[in-house]
Amino acid sequence: MSKISIVFDRVRAEEKMLQKEAEQLGYDTTSIDAKITRFNTESKKADYDFGNVVLERCVSYFRGIHFTACLEFLDIPVINTFEVANNCGNKMLTSLLLSKHKVPTPKTYFSFSADAARENLDKVGYPLVIKPIIGSWGRSVVPLKDKDTVDALFEIREFTDGPHDRIFYLQEMVKRPPRDLRAIIVGDEVVAAMYRKSSGFKTNIALGADPELCKITKEIEDLCLKASKAVGGGILGIDMMEDEKRGLVVHEVNNTVEFKGLAKVATKNIPKAMVEFAVNSVRK
Amino acid sequence: MNCPDCDGNINVPADASVGEIVSCPDCGADFEISKKDGSIELKKAETVGEDWGE
Ligand SMILES: Nc1ncnc2c1ncn2[C@@H]1O[C@H](COP(=O)(O)OP(=O)(O)O)[C@@H](O)[C@H]1O
Ligand SMILES: [Mg+2]
Ligand SMILES: [Zn+2]
């Protein structure tokens, strides 16, 4: 019988659903708190009780990806893999990969100092959207519409001066309806999709946007498959916008996808699909 | 259980699991349910970090 572990740092509705589905499918299931787990360079797989496969579900991205590195060191299969977490956790890497794999994506500019970013803005013109390369829930995603906003924002960046503040990720402002799209893909299967509607600029559910179930069209399915392939596959949340002219563009791929709202309205059982995918991925 | 901060009464559901967050209805502080030597205790919850999210 397969044994599956769910690694968490904070138990949310998602982690409880995963635990429940795994148990109902008859798998030996344990939830493991990343915050109280230790590893060392001589650790062996047998020292731990992770089972055949791990679902890494930490809310903290850095905690999750470093934990994943330790699990892979022990040759324990993890979903998602370190490589995928790395590709999705950093928006610049994601944009590069999407473009490289010919997945339609908003035009995005990269520069490595405030001066170069200003020059970029002078050349391209307003508006552009600035995003931290590592971040989520819409945090610090800001539409830049004029020079005053840019000056204020860059000044703050200079003060905070985190290692990632020196990387400037600027993106064309996509002309879209007041919503975007989120699809969840598990392996090769798009299991659910929703519109996220908001009167504000950002349409993150975490910021209060309204979810509305969306039919999984062929276009959505094809795009999700391509985007998933570009970052390395697994269990992913694909964010898309409906561009006026180009149709759907992918702007982000999420590594530790949240699905509690969607699970209530989706026709497919999302956590069940995730557990089955994890178990099957190590059976092959 | 009593709130470690304000002594208010925090209701910990019977089916709550370790790692879940409960809030104090009186002062609003968040606590993580943890287990020490087999018994439940309330640990100060981590605050939202720059790297938190999906
Ligand atoms: N280039 C853009 N044009 C228009 N809206 C955008 C653009 N980029 C992001 N948004 C809006 O901001 C939200 C958050 O951006 P996103 O890149 O998904 O960052 P996060 O990882 O914080 O969710 C998106 O869901 C969308 O509503
Ligand atoms: Mg997003
Ligand atoms: Zn209190």
List the helices and strands and how they pair.
The complex is a heterodimer of chains A (284) and B (54).
Chain A: E1 3-8, H1 13-24, E2 28-33, E3 53-56, H2 61-73, E4 78-79, H3 82-89, H4 91-100, E5 108-111, H5 114-124, E6 128-131, E7 142-144, H6 147-160, E8 168-172, E9 179-186, E10 189-197, E11 210-213, H7 218-231, E12 235-243, E13 247-254, H8 260-265, H9 270-283
Parallel strand pairs in A: 1-2, 1-3, 3-4
Antiparallel strand pairs in A: 5-8, 6-7, 6-8, 9-10, 9-12, 10-11, 12-13
Helix pairs in contact in A: 1-9, 2-3, 3-4, 4-7
Chain B: E1 21-23, E2 30-36, E3 39-44
The structure holds adenosine-5'-diphosphate (ADP), magnesium ion (MG) and zinc ion.
Overview of this protein structure:
The complex is a heterodimer of chains A (284) and B (54). With 284 residues, chain A is an alpha+beta fold. Chain A folds into three domains: 3-86, Rossmann fold; 108-172, ATP-grasp fold, A domain (Dna Ligase, domain 1); 175-255, ATP-grasp fold, B domain (D-amino Acid Aminotransferase, Chain A, domain 1, 2-Layer Sandwich), CATH 3.30.470. Helix content of chain A is 36%, strand content 25%. Chain A has helices spanning 13-24, 61-73, 82-89, 91-100, 114-124, 147-160, 218-231, 260-265, 270-283, and strands spanning 3-8, 28-33, 53-56, 78-79, 108-111, 128-131, 142-144, 168-172, 179-186, 189-197, 210-213, 235-243, 247-254. Chain B has 54 residues and is mainly beta. Chain B has one domain (1-46): Rubrerythrin, domain 2 (Single Sheet), CATH 2.20.28. Chain B has strands at 21-23, 30-36, 39-44. Chain B starts with 20 loop residues before the first strand and ends in a 10-residue tail after the last strand. The mean pLDDT of chain B is 94. Classes of the chains: A alpha+beta (284), B mainly beta (54). The interface between A and B is medium-sized, with 27 and 14 residues. The structure holds adenosine-5'-diphosphate (ADP), magnesium ion and zinc ion. The site of adenosine-5'-diphosphate has 20 residues of chain A, from strand 6, strand 8 and strand 13.
